[in-house]
Amino acid sequence: MRIPASSFKKAWDSIKALRHNRRLGIFLIFLALSTIFWFLTQLEEVYVSSISYPVEYQDMPEDKIVVGDLPAQMQLEIRGQGFKLLEYKFSNELNPLILHINSYNLQTLEGASSPRYYIVTQTTTTRIAQQLSQDVEILDITPDTLFFEFAEKVSKKVPVHPGVEYSFARQMMLRGSIQIEPDSVIISGPNTVVDTIDQIPMRSRRFTDLQQTVHASVELETPHKQVSLSTRQVELTIPVEQYTEGSLEKNVQVVNVPDSLVVRTFPQSVTVTYLVGLSQYEQVIPELFKVTGDYQDIQQGRGQLKVEVVKAPDYLKSYSCNPQEVDYIIEKKQ
Fold it and tell me: How much of the chain is helix, strand and coil, in % rounded to 5?
C-alpha cells in the first residue's frame, strides 16, 4: 500500500511543533521525574507479599531413603520494605533454603498404613529467617506441614549392559569381546525399587566404519530417580583388528552309526575355509575343528551325505566347508 506524501508532511510538521514547544517538553520532564520520585518513595513503605523460595533437603537418615517427592519450593508470606520485596520477587538466583532433616524432631503420623513422619513448617521459621535478610519478616509458610515416608535403603551389585551399536570398515573385525570397566556397579535405594533392577544400561552410542580399537568414556543411565550409582560412567573398549582368510583339511566323522556298520566317505576330508584376525592366525590348527555327517540322513534315503562344521574356535569371524556333501559307502564290520 502506498502512503501519500502529504501524510509524511503532516507528521513531520507535528514533530517540529512539539520540538519547538518548550513548555510542553519541560512539563513532560517534570512529570517523569515526579513519577520516579513517587515510585521510589512508595518502595520505602512496608508491604506484605508472597514469594516462591527453592528448598533443598539434606542430612537424611543414612539407612533410609525418602519415598515420593518433596516440595521443591515453599510459599513464604513476608513483610518488608518494597525494595527488598522486589529483590526476592524477581531474583532468579535465590540461594535455596537448606533443611537439615536430621536436626528436626520428626513426628510420627498416626493411623498411616506405612510409617510416615512430618514436620510442621512453622517450626522451621527461625532457621529459614536466618537464611533471609534481616529486613524481612516471615508471616506464614505454605505448605504448613512436610510429610516424609521412608523406605529401607539397600544396595546390590548389578552388571552394566553395553548399549552400543557398531560397524566395521572393510576387512576389519571385532577382536575378542567388548570390554567395560567396571563391568558392574553398586546401586543403592529403596528396597522396593532396587529389587526390580537387574542391570544398568549405558547411554546409547554408535560407532561406524571402525578401523582401529575404540576407547571411550560412556555415561550410565539412572534407572530411577531414587536410585544412586557407585559410579556415573564406565570406560568402553571395542577391540578392532584386520582379518585374513585361511584354510585347512579336516577328516569327516560320521555320527550315529550303528555298531555293526562302518560308513566311509568320498572324499575322506573336506576343506575348511575361515576368516580370522591377524593376531590369532597362527593359533588356528586342525585339532580345533570337527566336521561331521549324520547317519540318520542316510536312513532317510539321501544320495549324498551332508557334512557341516560343528566345532570351531569362537574367535573366528566366519567359517565354512567345501564340499558340503560327500559320497559314501556302508560296510558291515568284520
Answer: 25, 45, 30
CATH T-level fold of 152-238: RNA Polymerase Alpha Subunit; Chain A, domain 2 (2.170.120)
Distance CA 305, CA 314 (A): 26
- Amino acid at site 230: S
Tell me the per-residue pLDDT of 209-242, one tens digit each, with 9 for 90 and over. Answer: 999 999 999 999 988 888 889 999 999 999 999 9
CB 275 within 8 A of CB 136: no
Let me know: does 242 contact 278? Beta carbons within 8 Å: yes
Cα 94 to Cα 88: distance, rounded to the nearest angstrom: 8
Q: What pTM does this model have?
A: 0.59
C-alpha to C-alpha distances, 59 to 73, 120, 206, 254, 264, nearest whole angstrom:
18, 18, 40, 72, 80
